[in-house]
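pinning this so it doesn't scroll away 📌
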Amino acid sequence: MRLAVGCAMWTHKAWQGRFLPHPLPAGERLRAYAGWCDAVEGNTTFYATPTRETVATWAAQTGPDFRFVVKFPKAVTHERRFTGVEQEVRAFLDAVEPLGPRADALWVQLPGSFGPADVPLLANFLRRLPGSFRYAVEVRHPAFFDDARATAELEDVLTRAGAEWVPFDTTAFFRSAPTSDAERDAWTKKPRVARRAVALTDRPIVRYLGRDEVARTVEGWQPWVETVVEWLREGRSPTVFVHTPDNADAPALARRFHDEVRARVPALDPLPDPAPVEPLTLF
């Protein structure tokens, strides 16, 4: 039984001098982040497949229990929709291999235009992937959340592949109008779908988007505290990623979520204490 928590990235300008020492070489930022959280989303791989050498440095900066959820390249999922992507998939799988057990899941994020009629493409793609990795799928088409038949068909495909369905919960974010530039930007970009809290595997993955105001973020995640507590009591080991539009407080919020769950499940191990960070100075 374990709960891992993390953020959408491991470095952010707003964290410098607060959560991460500053200045800090690029090759040490993940190590510092790993003192706060024990999981991270690998979003950069969506835009370009890194070299094996780069990925090996990620592994070297993290312990064996650290969890990466690494996104497939957009050429595979968005541009070619699984057609004629053998070379790109091989390059990606080879690049992330140095993560070893740290690769908690390879993440297939699909565009909002990928609907129920496209599920056979996904099923064929998942069948062809090697069993040496675990896979997780995020869909954004409303039908998967509103149409019981579409939901069941996707669940069946994922279950057959041993893959998890990753919900991106934006319901708390869209509950009221945006109040900051970051929230207004997210308002136009983030998906609006119903909250889903069904685990298909023993390691469910959740992405939660709150607000820039801490109190509203914490209020909005209370249903997830209940869900995660239930999953832990069932013997599952979930990973929860906490987002806000500006992500300025994301590492502290992720730890706070872990603390709230642990208050309900005392047997859950605490996160390690992060190393102290010296405040920024002018000179």
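📌 and the second one:
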Amino acid sequence: MSDMSSFVAAAALIADPARGLILTALLDGRALPAGELAYAAGITAQTASSHLAKLLDGGLLAVETEGRHRYYRLAGGHVAEALERLSGIHAAGPVRRRALGRQGRELRFCRCCYDHLAGQVGVAVTRGLQERGYLEPAPEKRFAVTPAGRAWFAGIGLDVDAVRPTRRGLARQCLDWTERSHHLAGPLGVELLHVLCARGWLRRRPASRAVEVTPRGRAELQQHLGVEESSPLAA
């Protein structure tokens, strides 16, 4: 299959509204059974089965079998990145938009982008890391970790040297589709989210991409990185 025909096939799969909802439900990196994905997409189990088969064949999903149960997840971070980038494409010029509901405000404030931190908090954390000289922009949309950055990450329990980079590097710049700025992705971004949750600064919500910033987390993020954004939910 040529690059162009592969692009067209993937675009056609994503363009279907039900399949789009299925893919969106998996953006937080979890693996979900067909029943939950059918519910998320508002379709029957039989219809979901057909859509899941097409997404598997198209390379957008992977499946894991546990006993009699099958769990579906995105085929990888490259699929999540593509979906996030597509979500940020809008028509030029002024566009009338509905006001965000509670769930939309939660996701914009702080969420998972597949397996790393995104939203207003994710962008603010990344900005703080750069302003303090812990991260520096690098070629090919990457971040370089400075010696001061390695020391800071070690101070919160993250050994940068123990994180295995992928072929795309250790730390990657990911364009946040709601904030139009970059947040930290790649293996370092994955480990940072894990550590911040383990330290009780953040809390991932079950069955949601939304991430909560705990009271302790607000204080620590402000002290360490100057993150002062208040939750839009407080308004």
